[in-house]
Design a protein that fits this description.
single chain, 274 residues, alpha/beta, 60s Ribosomal Protein L30, Chain: A, Alpha/beta knot, 2 domains, seven-stranded parallel β-sheet, four-stranded mixed β-sheet, 11 helices, 11 strands, 35% helix, elongated, RNA binding, methyltransferase, Alpha/beta_knot_MTases, RNA methyltransferase activity, transferase
Length: 274
């Protein structure tokens, strides 16, 4: 261990009640939008946030939790102030039944389509996705399979919702996430760059396995995903070049949004790397 770096961080400052109240307000959407700040809960999310320490304003941690020590060391090295709190105090700034012991206040950096480089080849666009757990899981899957960006339309869940952040398990910090997008304009933007647009649709005329075998998935691709409950309405589905069904060989009626996104993104990522 480098000289001057302890294996155990000191307990840290105690936050005042005003600081805790300010953090608690970030559970409210209006406050997140007004301040540009959001809460990242859990060791993995905080670890990924600290990779870009300029985005981390401060963090709160339950004192005496040994497994958090590497994060506290990283925070101190980065100049991020850490406040020691009780488990009861931490519970007031999270929306989970069993908090994970650490929460960071982070600055939200809004992604834009212009963030995509010329080498971009795989993007997922979520239209009217309202469930925060699904949205966060799609972001995590996109990150895992090497997608270049995630786009959420204006009528989708707000990306700094604590449940979205938690479900992304740190992936929110890894790739551009564009929000508030107009669907038709977004798809036109990608078509102009040579992308094909494939809509994931259980009733689609094309099937994922046939497209994979044909080599069509090797092209730069936008995957268009619809709402959890009703999928893509006809006026959205027709904006795609193809409507693609994931074949189901068992007795399940359908796949949920996040699972379908994972299968489609994996198929494209594999084809593009052959």
């Amino acid at each position: 261990m480098p000289a001057g770096v302890s294996s155990h961080e000191p307990a840290g400052d105690r936050p005042g009640q005003g600081r805790l109240r300010s953090a608690r307000r970030l559970l409210q959407r209006k406050q997140r939008l007004n301040t540009g700040l959001f809460l990242a809960e859990g060791p993995q999310a905080v670890r990924e946030a600290l990779a870009d320490p300029a985005r981390v304003r401060e963090l709160f941690h339950v004192d005496g939790n040994e497994r958090l020590q590497p994060l506290l060391v990283a925070a101190r090295r980065a100049g991020v102030r850490a406040y020691a709190v009780t488990a009861a105090e931490l519970a007031t700034i999270t929306d989970t039944t069993t908090p994970q012991g650490i929460v960071a206040i982070c600055e939200h950096t809004e992604g834009t389509l212009d963030d995509l480089g010329a080498a971009a080849r795989l993007v997922v666009v979520c239209a009217q996705v309202r469930d925060p757990g699904n949205a966060g899981t799609v972001i995590r899957c996109a990150d895992a399979f090497g997608a270049d960006a995630v786009v959420l339309t204006a009528d989708s869940v707000e990306v700094t919702n604590p449940k979205v952040v938690r479900a992304s398990v740190g992936s929110l910090f890894h790739l551009p996430v564009v929000t508030g997008a107009h669907l038709a304009n977004t798809l036109d933007f990608f078509r102009d760059k040579g992308f094909q647009v494939l809509a994931a649709d259980g009733g689609g005329q094309d099937t994922l396995d046939v497209l994979a075998d044909s080599g069509a998935l090797a092209r730069p691709t936008v995957w268009l995903m619809g709402n959890e409950a009703w999928g893509l309405p006809p006026e959205h589905a027709v904006l795609a070049d193809r409507q693609v069904a994931v074949p189901i060989f068992g007795r399940a009626e359908s796949l949920n949004l996040a699972t379908a996104a994972a299968v489609c993104l994996y198929a494209s990522a594999t084809a593009q790397r052959r």
